[in-house]
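Progress note, project year one: complex with pyridoxal-5'-phosphate.
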Amino acid sequence: MIPRNKKPENRPADPNFSSGPCAKRPGWNYKTLQTALVGRSHRSSIGKGKLKEVIEYSRKVLEIPEGFVVAIVPASGTGAMEIAMWSLLGARAVDVLIWESFGQRWALDIKQQLKLNSIRKIEAEYGKLPDLSIVDFNSDVVFTWNGTASGVRVPNGNWIETNRRGLTIVDATSAVFAMELPWEKIDVATWSWQKALGGEAAHGMIALGPRAIDRLETYVPDWPIPRLFSLTRNGKLNKNIFEGMTINTPSMLAVEDALDGLKWASEIGGLSSLIERTNRNAEVVSRWVSSTPWIDYLCADSDSRSTTSVVLNIVDQKYLNLDETTQRMVINNMLELLSAEKAGFDLGSHADAPPGFRIWCGCTIECKNLEALFPWLDWVFFEVMKPNE
Ligand SMILES: Cc1ncc(COP(=O)(O)O)c(C=O)c1O
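Model obtained:
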């Protein structure tokens, strides 16, 4: 074993561990974008063809069942979630599940922007899941499948009623392409290109199941729907949007990159391979955590621990004795050193989370790069904390 106070010699070949935009797929380079339809209309037949291909590949790779419709929408994951909430909520009471920053955002939208009164917040602190057993499926239920900021996810969909009356509106941004999603338990799922497949940020995706489509066609919310959010025309689902006629103009460069990621995903074996790669990465982290006394997971329960956005805390006593401002300084110094050494980028915890680290372990990350990162984390910890002094 390398002594922890010795600077490691090997760096990760790809030191990008950000939780979004995430690392590019192995082998990606700028030539990938040479076939992008730049300077052409997205409404040309070739442009529409590419947009449709993104939709079809997404359906195929994510194994989205018949009966669901899928669209590319503006404004990334946030846009997709806000489109869903603005278009569908208000018909029933809402249970919103909050255990980190993203759930918190959706709750604020529902309360402060849509001004719904019949909203129940079901909350838990960072590192924990709220009590899923009290969720009322007569209400619409809004939740994040994987809480990117706290590294806590729902373990499965067993707690969701199959014969529910409300809709389940699921922010699956950091869960898709990495975790099993039981589509029969989901009425709406949203995600963005910038996450698991390492696409360029810009656009979001929305999948609507039959019950969500029915809600769209039978209910009109009493708040204004911006044109950018509009999924219907004359009271019916606007099918064109789900065939690649995007609501507004997309970046064809980003489209090409999204297609590249989806084709790679398909070529390496589809969803099961993506999940396997993610799980293997999460296991590599787990081995390091078990053999490293100064670090531990924020999420104590392994069943609800994220396999994509893995959130870690320093548990060394000398560090725990510091106040939070000094703890943040320690983490920042460690991150700066990692970055200066080009050994690891962007692996600080989310701004709203307790001070710590967040290491993305999705399918575009290679195990060997994680393995090369850990001696550097050990080294920067010893450099900054000098724990034996
Ligand atoms: C769970 C979750 N939801 C929504 C978002 C927002 O996504 P975007 O920044 O692509 O709009 C993120 C981004 O990290 C996320 O992790």
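The CA atoms of residues 199 and 258 lie 5 Å apart.
Residues 20, 76-78, 102, 144, 148, 171, 173-174, 192, 194, 201 surround pyridoxal-5'-phosphate (CB under 6 Å).
No further modelling is planned for this target in the current period.
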